[in-house]
Specification:
Blueprint: H1 2-29, H2 35-110, H3 113-119, H4 122-152, H5 162-185, H6 196-235
Helix pairs in contact: 1-2, 2-4, 2-6, 3-4, 3-6, 4-5, 5-6
């Protein structure tokens, strides 16, 4: 009740004033003979007051509704802006990931470790080892970027990165150490050839590189698929 009075005190005071003044006038100058005229006056007078009161209340209600609608529209607009910003950030991240994926893809294609096994030449081995180290470094960075996108960013269809994470970790822990060991045993003269034991090591490394390449191909296809889906969603 107190809140109602605080919000509408001017209206209440106005109504009391409009009703009180004619009543005082009637008490001062009115008489029974003029009762009919006074009743007519009161009828039109009160009717006007009621009309004004309803008009005021209707204006207040309409104003409140418009204010609430405007507030909802602003909130919806802010939410839409936030959603669009999130979608745009997703697209940028995915595009950056695909762009980097092209680099990794070229590095895999350039690796010819099987040629080292076939030719047995130490000069080829040193060159391919450098390529493999570069592949592992860039693939590791690529996978970390993918982890950040699909595990942190809220995509509807997340990509499973368990296999490539596991195989990459195993390669870094085991195969890179093996490569360092082979490099330490490679003869200084480039005309010499790799021994049988080191060629066997290279075969294992080659198998693991091929497994990483297979994991990468699957991941690359899934990323491009998600990018295409996101593009279609944003167009809609």
């Amino acid at each position: 009740m107190k809140k109602f009075y605080q919000k509408n005190k001017w209206l209440i005071l106005a109504l009391c004033t409009f009703i009180t003044i004619p009543g005082i006038l009637f008490l001062i100058i009115g008489n029974l003979k003029q009762r009919t005229d006074w009743l007519s006056f009161w009828g039109s007078y009160l009717g006007s007051i009621i009309t004004i009161a309803f008009a005021y209340i209707n204006t207040q209600v309409s104003s409140k509704e418009q204010s609430e609608n405007l507030k909802l529209q602003l909130e919806q607009s802010k939410q839409n802006d936030l959603d669009n910003a999130i979608k745009l950030d997703r697209m940028k991240r995915l595009f950056s990931l695909i762009d980097y994926s092209d680099i990794v893809n070229q590095e895999f294609k350039s690796a010819k470790i099987q040629a080292v096994i076939n030719t047995k030449r130490t000069s080829y081995a040193k060159l391919e080892f450098d390529k493999i180290k570069k592949i592992v470094t860039d693939l590791d960075f690529f996978v970390q970027k993918a982890n950040n996108i699909f595990y942190i960013t809220d995509f509807e269809n997340n990509i499973d990165l368990k296999d490539i994470n596991k195989d990459l970790l195993n390669f870094k822990v085991n195969d890179l150490l093996l490569i360092e060991f082979i490099e330490s045993k490679i003869p200084k003269k480039t005309t010499e050839k790799l021994d049988v034991k080191n060629r066997q090591h290279l075969k294992k490394i080659s198998q693991h590189i091929n497994k990483l390449n297979s994991d990468y191909d699957i991941l690359d296809k899934e990323i491009r698929k998600v990018y295409k889906q996101e593009t279609l969603i944003n167009k809609d």
